[in-house]
TrEMBL record:
Database matches in InterPro entries: Aminoacid_DH-like_N_sf (IPR046346), NAD(P)-bd_dom_sf (IPR036291), THF_DH/CycHdrlase (IPR000672), THF_DH/CycHdrlase_cat_dom (IPR020630), THF_DH/CycHdrlase_CS (IPR020867), THF_DH/CycHdrlase_NAD-bd_dom (IPR020631)
Organism (species): Sphingomonas kyeonggiensis
Gene3D superfamilies: Leucine Dehydrogenase, chain A, domain 1, NAD(P)-binding Rossmann-like Domain
Annotated gene: folD
Residue ranges of domain Tetrahydrofolate dehydrogenase/cyclohydrolase catalytic in the record: 6-121
Protein name: Bifunctional protein FolD
Amino acid sequence: MTADIIDGKAFAAGLRARVAELVPAFQAAAGRVPGLAVVLVGEDPASAVYVRSKGKQTRECGMESFEHKLPAETTQEALIALVDQLNADPAVDGILVQLPLPKHIDEQAVLLRINPDKDVDGFHPVNAGRLATGLHGFVPCTPLGCLMLLEDRLGDLTGLDAVVIGRSNIVGKPMAALLTRASATVTIVHSRTRNLPHYLKHADIVVAAVGRAHFVKGEWLKPGATVIDVGINRTDAGLVGDVDFDSAASVAGAITPVPGGVGPMTIACLLRNTLVAAHRNAGVALEKGVI
Ligand SMILES: NC(=O)C1=CN([C@@H]2O[C@H](COP(=O)(O)OP(=O)(O)OC[C@H]3O[C@@H](n4cnc5c(N)ncnc54)[C@H](OP(=O)(O)O)[C@@H]3O)[C@@H](O)[C@H]2O)C=CC1
Ligand SMILES: Nc1nc(=O)c2c([nH]1)NC[C@@H]1CN(c3ccc(C(=O)N[C@@H](CCC(=O)O)C(=O)O)cc3)C=[N+]21
């Protein structure tokens, strides 16, 4: 193995500590702490684990966590009524509806109902549009965390060749938008791409968000590339990423592990977005670039 391991867990702990440091000044100015509401519908065990750790980390940062656990048979109308209630609640700065939702609920309809100024996931089309057009808004947490790790490792990304594998609204597309904003030259590849390894051969940066265990092989990579593995796949051998770690680590310059890479950054960025939302919603200034 030659690649450096990018320690997302440590970076995320540092980011959470910076969030926690900024909470007391907000509290002094606003007379309350930032609040994050997390809504979980159904009993998916993986989702329940994430929601628990989001709640715990929110409280550890000195912010308030409102957890709403609804049964799997909850109607779309009832879920939308809860979103309306959270939109109207001045103690709630951020709203996260855990995905995936049960099949009888139209995910887009629920996400559209969230007030874009409380949309700390950055999934509302208004925030996707703000990102696409260069306006201030909320950037989805997973791609934001990936960008932070990339800039920490590489500094300025200007002119670098980046390939994003995957074009979902929550990871691939916003990741490509962020890299474009950072002046990288970006290619998106997906399941209909012909000869996918061809595009990877020249990439200085590879972000894999495919949802297939061990998908990216070391032999596809440019030597020295920086590889960000977003994948979370549960296999008999445990949690694994979308990158074939052993072969990739012998070619790449740096690589994120799974677990301990992008996952912890996602939650830390959620707390960061909640802190930013609280300042905007309460009209309290936050020094530019401080977080
Ligand atoms: N660490 C974290 O915090 C997070 C991790 N994840 C993980 O990231 C991964 C991706 O998530 P998400 O974007 O939501 O997944 P989606 O299933 O929504 O998107 C997967 C993308 O990969 C593409 N794809 C699928 N198969 C292939 C293939 N054989 N060759 C090339 N491209 C392919 C799809 O192409 P097409 O569009 O053509 O179908 C699609 O664009 C998952 O493992 C998920 O668990 C997700 C969110 C947060
Ligand atoms: N509205 C919404 N927003 C999300 O951001 C969202 C979502 N729905 N649905 C599910 C995906 C997935 N996701 C992860 C968060 C943390 C880890 C994480 O902390 N992972 C740890 C390991 C955790 C474990 O061991 O299971 C790690 O990679 O080290 C992973 C994945 C957020 N998502």
